[in-house]
Amino acid sequence: MSVHPAAHFDEKPGRQVELDVATQDCMIHMGPQHPATHGVMRVLLKADGEILAGAQTHLGYLHRCAEKIGESVDWLQYLPYTDRYDYLAAMNNNLGYSLAVESLLGAEVPERAQYLRVIVAELNRIASHLFAVGTYGLDLGAFTPLFTALRDREEVLELFEKICGARLTYSYIRPGGVMNDAPEGWMATVGEFLNRLEESWHEYWTLIAENKIFIERTANIGVLSAEQAQAWGCSGPMLRGSGVDWDLRRDQPYLIYDRLEFDVIKGVGYRGTLGDCFDRTFVRMFEMVESVRIVRQCLEQIPDGEIMHEEVGAVIRPAPGESYVAIENPRGELGHYCVSDGTKIATRVRVRSPSFCNMSVAEHLMPGSMLGDAAAIIGSVDIVVGETDR
Amino acid sequence: MPLIAPEGETKELVRRAKEEDADPVWRGDAFILLRDLAQLPEVMTHCRDQLGYSLLYDVTAVDLSSDDADLKLVYGLRNLKTKARLVVQARVAKEATQVPSVSFIYPAADWHEREAAEMYGITYVGHPDLRKLLLPDDWDGFPLRKDYEYPDEYHGVSCT
């Protein structure tokens, strides 16, 4: 056994104890390839023993110049790029961008298309939250939630495949309306899926909220106060998990959300402190229930009619001006700030992505918690690195 | 999108700003166009403390054209109680891009300013840590400026 020359040993026989233990902060790189970073991102952790003394996030590994591309392709050509920043909620990205372009055009989308948009956006929210909760379990060492969540998410993806042919990157919602109408029997299939989901939701809830290990790993961990959440520009489940009553679907309604009944879910400190990691998961779990409610109402109310605005063609030339349109993405406020100079190419397409802002606060939640909680805190933010980096 | 008019004092501020300059065509929101960039921290503090705009959702910049001598700065604020949105805009010369940082008023500006700094070459004075965020540390130039020239290669990787 080799011994470090600086170490001194107790001379009593039987037990050797290291007397001179010099401690120093240990720097640990979490990522860029790490299962709990949900993409390629690096967090530099400073650990004092088992306690985190600081954290620093390094982004950019997945930067694909989305905003620069937006300034070099046609308005409509940019649509497929929106799919790719948040690839778990691509319908919502299509929606956010389409609404921004439509607000520049001043185009009103046919009612049937609006309902179809809400249906697919909410189904996408369910799929995204299922994935978020499932992978969060995986981050914390629980395999079962992911498998059951992927089983149901698969059904959503099949529904999307039927309506637009793609499973992840849809480009289904486009400026002016939606790509095509729902095939025959699609609505009934959605209804059946919602019934099944409602049953299996209780299964997830038991796997998450009644699971002692999950509770111990998340309750009272990474507590984000309401003031802190607002100061750091958080949105979505991150903001609502801290008890702030804010949802763009209700507070700045777009599409036909003002005709629908749903509750805004807030964190309540269900298993610990208000605004902890558990509360954020709590919000995601119950938002799925609300999404089911919303889709059901849409299935009842959806009228017949056109699905595309007549005057929005393949080449779009919005009048000069600028517009910022924000929607409630599964992760929070997804804003598109578009500037047009009247040509067919945008002057500026700014993407205000929710994960970016939500992640900026995560490094401030870490100091003082245990090293193992770093994964719990990052996972609770539910980031998609494609969106933080764009 | 419904128009959400800000209340009380903001209305007055906005009205004054509009009378002074009806330049940008902003659809659906109230905005303040700042003449004097040095006032920015003061205005932002006022918005946060007096007007209740507790959330800064975005900080960015726009380069309207390569002929334009200025960059446009855009700050987006939200009041979660009145549901109002307020946009503060200002201009800064491309030659001298010194802008006071608002990250000590709204911590949310931290990363947004870092991003705008690397993309547009804006120097946010007072920002605690203005390292590059999305770009590699040794990246030359400011990609979102209209006069940006693409590099031929980056560490042996052809960019053409």
Number of helices of chain A: 14
- Name the CATH homologous superfamily of the largest domain in chain A: Cytochrome-c3 Hydrogenase, chain B
Identify the CATH class of the largest domain in chain A. Answer: Mainly Alpha
Order of helices and strands of chain A: EEEHHHHHEEHHHHHHEEEHHH
Kindly report the CATH topology of the largest domain in chain A.
Cytochrome-c3 Hydrogenase, chain B
Largest beta sheet: strand ordering of chain A: 1-2-3
Briefly note the structural class of the backbone of chain A.
Answer: alpha+beta
CATH architecture descriptor name of the largest domain in chain A? Orthogonal Bundle
Distance between the termini of chain B: 41 Å
Largest sheet of chain B: 4 strands, mixed
Largest interface: pair, residues per side = A-B, 44 and 39 residues
> What is the number of strand segments of chain A?
8
CATH homologous superfamily designation of chain B = NADH:ubiquinone oxidoreductase Nqo5 subunit
Q: What is the percentage of strand-forming residues of chain B? A: 25-35%
Low-confidence stretches of chain B: 1-12, 17-28
Mean pLDDT of chain A: 86
Describe this structure in words.
- By secondary structure, chain A is an alpha+beta fold.
- Chain A has 2 domains: 26-55, no CATH class; 65-389, Cytochrome-c3 Hydrogenase, chain B, CATH 1.10.645.
- Helices cover 44% and strands 12% of the residues of chain A.
- Chain A contains 14 helices and 8 strands.
- Chain A has a 3-stranded antiparallel beta sheet. A 3-stranded antiparallel beta sheet of chain A has the order 6-7-8.
- In chain A, helix 4 (111-139) runs antiparallel to helix 13 (373-381).
- The relative contact order of chain A is 0.19.
- The mean pLDDT of chain A is 86.
- Chain B is α/β, with parallel strands linked by helices and 160 residues long.
- Chain B has a single domain, classed as Beta Polymerase, domain 2 (2-Layer Sandwich).
- Chain B is 22% helix and 26% strand.
- Chain B is built from 3 helices and 8 strands, in the order H-E-H-E-E-E-E-H-E-E-E.
- Chain B has helices at 8-20, 40-49, 109-120, and strands at residues 30-34, 55-62, 70-78, 85-93, 98-100, 123-125, 153-154, 157-158.
- In chain B, the strands form 3 sheets. Chain B has a 4-stranded mixed beta sheet. In chain B, strands 5-6 form a two-stranded parallel ribbon.
- Residues 1-12 and 17-28 of chain B have low confidence and may be disordered.
